[in-house]
Amino acid sequence: MQQTIQLDISSDIFDKVMFWLENLPKTKVKLKEIKNIVTPSNDYFSSKIDKYIFALTELDGTNRQKILSITPLHYRNKEVADKWKKEIALLLHPDRCSHPKAKEAWAIMNDIYSEMVSE
Known about the structure:
Blueprint: H1 11-22, H2 48-58, H3 61-67, H4 72-76, H5 78-92, H6 102-117
């Protein structure tokens, strides 16, 4: 019997929930997506593109992961990683995006994706 769980949680308990989920047997837990990770307000960025490019080129670690909505599930489930890459690729591909740091952000995004799908 499969069970789908949707989590809407604040960032202060996010790490505890993810720890619990990571330590469950992988065959028993199948998550579709975790939404509503607390990220900086959009008031600081003029567009989603600017927000993603800032996260990719200026941040690292947990801060980058929160802004880009990356969870440990992205590193275990190729479908989730593929969906994440597709969403960002539609915005940041250098052929579509005229931002001066689009190529740099694209390269970093591809590196992150490669880490997600590598075994």
